[in-house]
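Pasting as-is:
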Amino acid sequence: MTGGFRPGADGSAAPRDPVLAAAFADAGDLPDGEARLAELDRIAARADALGDPHSALDARFALVAAYLRHGGRWRIVEPVRRLLAAVDRSPDLLDARPGDAELLRRHLRQAVEAAIGTPRIGLDQAHTLLDALARRVGAEAGVVAQLRCRLADHAGDEPTARRWYDRWTAAAPDPEAGCPACLAVRRAELLAGWGDDRAALAALRPALDAGVDCTDQPERALAAGLLPWLRTGAAGRAATAHLRAYRRHRRERAALPYLAAQLRFCALAGHPDRALDLLAEQLPRLDHPYDDLSAMEFAAAGALVCALAAESGRDARRVRRPGHADRPAADLEVATLGTDLLAEATRLAGSFDARNGTGHHAGRIAAWLAERPTGDPVPLPEPESVEDPADEPFLPSAEEPAPLSLSQLTAVLDTRGDVYAVDAAGVVVGRWDEAVVQFRLLGRDGEILHARVVAARRLAAGRLAEAYEFCNAWNHDRLLPKAYVHELPGGELVLAGDVTTDLAHGVAPAQLGILVDAAVSTGVAYAAAVAALP
């Protein structure tokens, strides 16, 4: 998250056009959606025209963050490309913005990943962005090898992907590469796709470690292990993993990439009715997919479910498909739904293959549709018998309130793409521009969300009256955060603020996202105003 004025290398505010700065602040107050995105894009273009590179950077960093938070991940590629071009033209632009230098590297990785997930971005663009990342972190860095491996695999070049995989696994741990546990899942998915099921399960061990520090685990690892366990004779382990992972992923907004494995497991484990139930429950997600790749895989898995259901005499069963855009709601026979899903999967596979110049994804879909159960139905344990640790994260649907929890809060920050830490007391701390923001869960049951912002700039002890005057003016003109002055033992003045929200009746993820957005954006504005003081 970026915004407001940032101090230059000499401690002064980097020059920005005041009209654009005001427009940027106003854009932060717009509701999430296309209007806000369009305004940020307009500000960036206007800053380019006026020769104000810092305002252009602010707008484009904010634009990327908005796309990552609210969908359309593939749309980050263009603003990231423009950020890169601006920095390449003027390398000193980020001298006074070290946090943004790190952020640009992370966005370069995310842009390459976004290109893998959609055929709307050319592979040449993905390779150009990856080359730019390699120049910044080193050609031998783990994140570079990881992305080259995944790009090669995506295009169906398994030998090249395996060579890069070996370099990736041999590289030193790389903070630029992302969460280590989630990377273990990535490795397992690649190995399983190459037919190395036992190697895939071995790769999953770090992510299945009970002590792993990742709010998305172990459920993502369990989903990735479903088919390898089933194919290697560990059907009981697969059945338990299915129930535990689906308990979370059935309602998690970002879980579409893991649902294809759930559908295929149910179909191939001999549970066509359960597979149809899951397909019916999750079908609305296909109209709002995480990305095109996960939509293709979900549709292909759904087509397999329908084909096996029809073969087992369930062809008369109907599945409700909600209306979307100009498609009316309908109760479809299994065969009809399967035809529709296969057409969707085939269309997307054709788009990927046309972009990549291969037939890899069409072949993947054909292979999936040829799969059949190989034995008796796998017994599923009773749901209440499946381990459900007290600290297992549960994320409700976007609209469903649930008790406030640390896992909910960190999931919101992960979706935003923020960098943060959680201390031993459960306090979440992150830095956004010149604002350090701490999130705490207070109250007897942790039902109160408390956000405290501390401005990075401190004032001398002799400016106490001025500091009080600033805070009084802020509290008079702004609702958030509530500003105050804290005097350190040595006399130095810290300007801070807080926002407290009572969520005793629960909070939906979408609502919590709004509250976090507001706390961060107002905290950044507050810290920027402190930095702008004479």
